[in-house]
Structures are given as C-alpha cells and as structure tokens.
Design a protein that fits this description.
The complex is a heterodimer. By secondary structure, chain A is mainly α. Chain A is 33% helix and 4% strand. The relative contact order of chain B is 0.13. The chains are: A mainly alpha, B alpha/beta.
Chain lengths: 99, 479
C-alpha cells in the first residue's frame, strides 16, 4: 500500500480540506492506485538531467519583464467587491488570536 | 443569415455589404444560442449587454468607414475559466458561483478590440480539471453530434458551442489536452499554441507551467485568425513571449509537399482500433500530398502521464489554495475559527476531482516526498521535451492521435479516475514540452463519431502546423 488512511487525513489537513469519512476512504483507494502508477518514474534514468521547471525558449533573461512604471491598481472597492464579508476597507475573517 | 454556418470571412462580407448589421447579427446569434442551449448545456450564462455594446461600436466604425477589426461582428464563446469584467465567471465551481470579476483577461480585451462579440461563457470541468466536462458543478455538457455522449473536456462547452453552431469561434484553455481532446470529440479545430504565445492574464490558474489559452473553430483559417488576434507579448503576463506573430491566415494554402512528418512508434503501439485506423489513413493522406513520413522514437512517452499528474497536481494544489473563504464570494457557514473557515469552505465547495488533485498535489510536495516525486517528475519532463527537440532535428512536424477513442457515453468513465487520466497520453507530451499542437478533424468512425488528428511543431512554429492542418482539411480528411 502506498498511502494509508491516516496519511490521507494528514495531507487533507495540510491542504486545509475538510473531508468526510467516506471521502477519506475513497481518496485512500484512488490515491493509492495513482501513486502505484506514478511509482514507475523511479525506473527512469535521470542521472545528470536538469529538472524542467518551466518551458524555456531562446530569450534574454529579462526580456519579458515590464518596465518599472507605476500603473493604477485595482482599487479597494473593486478588490473587496467579491468578499463574502468585508468592512472598513478590509476583508473580515473569524477571530485569529484567542485570548 | 444562417448562424451555424457563419465564418469569420462571411460575417465580414455580410457586414461590409450591409446585408446585416453587427447589432442584428449579435441579436440573432444570442437568440439562437439561448434557444439551442438546452440541448447541450454548452453555455453557463450569456452576456447580451456586452455583446450588444461591442456590436454597436462595430456598426459605428463601419458607418464611419473605419476598419472594424479582424473579428468584426463574429460571435465568440469564452470558457468560464477566463475572466470577463462584470460578467459572472464560475470556473464550473460552486466556490465561484457568483463571482463577478473586476477585470478582463487580455485575450478577451484583444478579441473585443478586434470587433469580436462575446456571446456567453461556456461550461467546463471544475477549474479545468477533467476530460469530459462531467466535473462541472453546474451539470455536464452533451456532445452536439451524439447527445448521449460527452463533448470531451475540460473545455467541453466551448467545443460544443462551436460544433453546435452557436458561436463561430470559442476560447478554451489547455493544460494537458483540454482544447485538443474536446475538439477531436466534437469534430472541430482546436489549437494549443506555443507556451507563452497567448497571454494568460485573466486565465484562472490551474497548473501555471502548463496552462494555455487557445482557439476553437470550424475551420483552420478561423482558428488561425483568432490566434493571430490573441497572440503576442503582454506586459501583464511575464511568461508571455515577446516573439513576432506571423499573419497565420495569410500563410495558409501553400503546398505541403516535401515537409517531413514524424510518426512516433510509441504512440501507435496501443492503437489497434478504429481511431488508430483513421490516424493511419490521415498519415497516408499526408503522404499523398507529398509529405515524407518517418517513424520516430519518443522513448519518454510511457512515463509522461505519471510526470504530468505529479507536476499538474502539485501546481494546482498551490494555485487552488486561494479559494479559502476570504476573497472569492463563498464562505462556509461553519466558521468558529479561522481554520474551520478554511477547511469547511474548501471541503464543502470543491468537487471530488478538484479535491483528489489537491490531495495528490499536496502529498507529492509534502516533506520527504518532494525529491522523489516533484523533482523527479521535472527531470522526466525534460526528457519528454528532449524527445521532441530530437525529433525536430529530422522532421518538421509530429503527427499523432489526440485521444485513444472517440467521445464516450456520459457516466461511462466517471468512476475510474486513473483510467480517465491514462486517456490523456497523446495530448500530455506536447503540453509538457510547451510546443504548439492542435487537433484537426481527420475522419469519422462507422458510428459517425469524429476523430481528430494531432499535429505538433517546433516552438513558435504554429505556421507549419496550420499549413498542414489546412492541407488535410482541404483534402476533406480521410472520409
């Protein structure tokens, strides 16, 4: 077995994802199958191969950086317009620090 | 005007000869799209105000003798993962059911500037994760050519809209095949341009090192025209390439004689099927057009799926972290603590496929696994890219299937996520390499289901790809 139910719960916690017990069981089975498949990567000889983090093409390193010129920002009202809860120009969330 | 058979050229001709105005066309196109939509569910919502505002501007430009632009009056559908200012953009997710973006994607701005009329937003797999459009929180899309079958995914709504004739062209997004596979299933042209060719500013991020925006159309020429309008450097996307954009539609039509095409033997091993037969006949069609066919080797292919599903899910788990109940409209009612708010909002909001991918991505990035999975996958990705750069030393294009099978029935594959992932094998390699690739209609099965052929070329060489696709199209495919 590649992944246990306890590990599934641990990963869900890292991802801030509340899962039901049914989902935990289902994802344990699904992820186990998928991880079994991806384990085949270990057979590939990648000695001396540079990891490819991004598609690279012939261009100077700073070619695609824009000029450092200020542009008008989105603005407070527009940024908050989709917030589930806002007030006084801020996003509001439940209390973070418990006394 | 016969809406389903319009082309970019015929719309232009109709406008300039005053047979109809852009406003009349937009009104009729919207009416037609809304009346046809219940058959397939291709659209999630329409944008009549925006459509009529652009149409009015096009009419004024024509009246004043100005050039109304390359897409003047053309009805365009936009996948609902691409943001439109003031027009709801849901990404097929409950989490964004009421999200009204405060800005436009660069691709959308460029389309409207060229006179294109955005008629509505199309359904898709939630956050573009899926191969059938069955993962949308708002219900599946039906394939207009066979209503009991899927249109493919994740850009299933855009492919269906173009096939159904409710839009002349459409925008999709492609991370591992989400434009090409639905194009193949719906019998239309679908293009994934070179990574960086089209700005992703305003495309909701799924896997940033793999995400593309690209066109759907009923002809290669219309797809080429739409790509030309959208392509080019954008200061708002630092990954967009500052490379010259050729006049793709003007470069179509020449002979393809003498072009060398590579046929990867690894791709055809498992294709003893009707789809495989059609692809072989497509290859023969190219041979009779004067192309030279060479068998080539792409040894990293067998590891491409594993490589892709590690990289894409890792990036997705990071990109989807932003949907936490703070900024984007939906928050759980169970918010005793901040942590509860995050966990419950995400647990209640994401559908099963998104959760599965967030879980896989979080796992492969978690402490102790990063080197074994993510770093290893990035190295294998380099090998997949190397297969292509080696191939392009000796051939001008690679020809391949798009999908191992034509459109399948709704519900047929939903219970086996790994089987669904494995069906992405032919589209994923080009995505990993970041090269231009497209699906062009090749032929139909005995049951009448369309099968697309995939063409892949060197970075920034969309021109050769379009010329080949146009030649196959002009030859009438293989049927």
């Amino acid at each position: 077995m590649k992944i246990t139910e306890a590990e599934v719960r641990y990963v869900a916690d890292l991802a801030n994802l509340k899962l039901t017990d049914t989902e935990v069981a289902r994802f344990q089975a699904d992820l186990d199958g998928i991880l079994e498949h991806v384990a085949s990567l270990n057979e590939v000889d990648t000695e001396g191969v540079q990891p490819m983090a991004q598609v690279l093409y012939a261009a100077g390193e700073t070619d695609t950086l824009r000029a450092d010129v200020p542009v008008p920002p989105l603005g407070n009202a527009a940024a908050l317009a989709n917030a589930p809860q806002s007030g006084a120009g801020y996003f509001k969330v439940p209390k973070i620090i418990e006394r | 005007m016969e809406i389903p058979s319009l082309t970019i050229d015929s719309v232009r001709e109709g406008l300039l000869s005053k047979r109809f105005s852009a406003t009349e066309l937009a009104t009729e196109a919207l009416r037609f799209a809304e009346s046809e939509n219940p058959k397939t569910g291709a659209y999630l919502h329409f944008s009549p105000e925006r459509a009529l505002a652009t149409a009015g501007r096009v009419d004024r430009q024509i009246a004043q003798g100005e050039d109304p632009g390359a897409l003047a009056g053309v009805p365009v559908a936009v996948k609902d993962v691409i943001v439109t200012e003031g027009v709801r953009t849901t990404c097929g997710s409950k989490l964004l059911a009421n999200y009204i973006p405060p800005y436009d994607a660069t691709a959308v701005i460029r389309i409207e500037r060229a006179g294109g009329i955005i008629v509505g937003k199309t359904n898709c797999d939630e956050f573009a994760m899926g191969s059938s459009t069955e993962n949308s929180a708002f219900g599946p899309v039906r394939n207009p050519l066979a209503l009991d079958r899927v249109p493919g995914g994740s850009s299933g709504g855009s492919a269906a809209a173009v096939a159904q004739g409710t839009a002349v062209v459409a925008l999709g997004s492609d991370t591992g095949g989400s434009i090409r596979q639905p194009a193949s299933f719906c019998g239309v042209v679908g293009v994934t341009p070179t990574y960086g060719r089209v700005s992703r500013y305003g495309l909701t991020a799924f896997a940033s090192s793999l995400d593309h925006i690209g066109p759907f159309a009923r002809s290669v020429k219309d797809a080429a025209t739409l790509l030309r309008v959208m392509a080019g450097h954008d200061p708002a996307d630092s990954t967009s390439a500052d490379a010259p954009v050729p006049d793709y539609p003007a470069l179509l039509g020449g002979s393809v004689k003498g072009l060398k095409l590579g046929l990867p033997r690894e791709y055809l091993k498992g294709l003893k099927s009707e789809t495989g037969d059609l692809i072989h006949r497509g290859v023969e069609a190219f041979r009779s057009l004067g192309c030279e066919i060479r068998e080539i080797g792409m040894p990293a292919t067998e590891h491409a799926i594993a490589c892709y599903y590690i990289i894409a899910t890792a990036e997705a788990s990071s990109n989807l972290a932003r949907y936490d109940g703070v900024r984007y409209t939906v928050r759980s009612e169970h918010t005793d603590t901040l942590s509860d708010m995050y966990r419950n909002t995400r647990g209640e909001g994401f559908g099963a496929e998104c959760k599965r991918r967030i879980m896989l991505g979080t796992y492969v990035l978690s402490a102790g696994y990063y080197d074994a999975y993510y770093l290893k996958a990035q190295k294998v990705r380099a090998l997949v890219a190397r297969d292509f750069s080696n191939a392009f030393q000796e051939v001008d294009a690679v020809v391949a299937p798009v999908s191992p099978f034509p459109a399948f029935r709704l519900g047929e594959k939903v219970d086996d996520p790994l089987a669904m992932y494995l069906s992405d094998i032919y589209t994923i390699t080009g995505s990993l390499a970041g090269i231009p690739c497209m699906s062009v209609p090749c032929g139909k099965t005995a049951g009448g289901l369309p099968v697309g052929m995939q063409l892949l070329t060197r970075h920034f060489d969309e021109t050769t790809m379009f010329r080949l696709a146009n030649a196959l199209e002009t030859a009438g495919g293989v049927n």
